[in-house]
Structures are given as C-alpha cells and as structure tokens.
Design a protein that fits this description.
The protein is of the alpha+beta class. The chain has five helices and eleven strands; from the N terminus they run E-E-E-H-E-H-E-E-E-E-E-E-E-H-H-H. Helices cover about 25% and strands about 30% of the residues.
Length: about 200
C-alpha cells in the first residue's frame, strides 16, 4: 500500500494504491483518489482493504508492506485485531519503552548497529498501543526500523519488496506512460484512465 500525488495547475491529484508484488513487479489492483492534499487517513486505508477482502474473500496475504506515512494507533490496532500480516517502516522518532519498561526512547536507540548490519528482536515491544516485533537494518546514518506482527527475522527482506511499487509509480507517471501529463480534472475519469494504464503496465 502506498500513495502518490502530483499537481495539475492548482488541481491536486492524490491516489492511494494497493498493489500485489509478483515476480519482482508491483501490479496495481485497487486505488482510490483522495479528494484532498496530504496523507491518507485510517478510514480511507480501511475502506481500501475492505474492498480488497470483498473482491478476493479467499485470497491469503503474505504481508502488507507500508512506508512511514502509514502510522498511528487506530491504524495499527485495526491491522493487529484483524490479523493482517504487515511490515511497516516507522519514523525514527517513534517512542518505545526501554528494556526496563521505565522510560520511552526513540526506536532507533533500541538498536546498536554498524553499517551493513541487520537485527531482529524476538520479544514483542509496545508501539502505538500494540505489541509488535521490531527489526532494523543500517545502511546510512540511521537504521531503517520495521514493525511487524509475524516473522520478524525476515521483516527487512520482505519490506524491501515495497520498493516495487515505487518503480511502478515511476513507470506510470513518467517512464513511458506519462500519467502526469494528463489534463483530466475529474477524479472518476482519472480512475478510469488508471484502469487502462494498469492493464497496459501488466
């Protein structure tokens, strides 16, 4: 799940996508055009997932992959209580309890990594009101920290598959399909155009 946006004049085009990773590619399957600027909210994300479940009621999900935009107590509670398997990258200033449970620390303080190292914590930690597992990998100055509700040892590897949707956005918006050049200002028509682009991309 991810979001992409651009401006046509003063008209804001803001799209929340759900895609399936398959053999190294992200295939767009569902989306909603948000009638606003900025991030999606929990209600909009839940609506998209419920639509997926209605269309594909028997489809098992290996992982739902999301970037730092997809945060918050209500959103995480929904995923945990509905038992959606997920990997979410969390902002570096996310607060978590220390091992003594007597103070809160930025999540990056939990991991002491050198460049190139990866680490998964076996015991769950409370993040945004829910008990989840943490994993981290360091390539730059700050570690990339992932929260998940299952198989923390493979969370980093799974999360990196999220980059396929970024490649999909690049292809659809500017590398051949040129979606950003559309002059459409009607969200229903843009959604229909996305149907054609999704088929062509596949």
């Amino acid at each position: 799940m991810d979001r992409t946006n651009w401006m046509f004049g003063i008209f804001k085009i803001n799209i929340l996508f759900l895609a399936i990773n398959y053999k190294g590619m992200a295939i767009p399957i569902l989306w909603t055009l948000l009638p606003k600027k900025g991030c999606s909210n929990t209600a909009e994300r839940i609506e998209l997932l419920q639509k997926f479940q209605k269309i594909f009621p028997e489809q098992a999900i290996q992982r739902l992959l999301m970037d730092r935009e997809f945060k918050g107590k209500r959103w995480l509670k929904f995923l945990v209580h509905r038992n959606w398997p997920f990997c979410i990258r969390v902002p570096s200033n996310t607060l978590v309890p220390n091992k003594h449970q007597n103070r809160l620390l930025p999540v990056t303080r939990i991991f002491l990594l050198t460049t190139g190292e990866t680490m998964a914590i076996r015991q769950p930690i409370k993040v945004w009101g829910q008990m989840v597992y943490l994993a981290a990998s360091k390539k730059g100055n700050d570690p990339m920290v992932i929260i998940c509700n299952t198989e923390s040892w493979r969370a980093i590897e799974d999360y990196l598959q999220r980059l396929q949707i970024e490649t999909m956005f690049q292809a659809m918006k500017g590398r051949g399909f040129n979606l950003e050049e559309t002059h459409l200002k009607d969200r229903d028509k843009i959604s229909k155009l996305l149907c054609a682009l999704a088929l062509a991309f596949c």
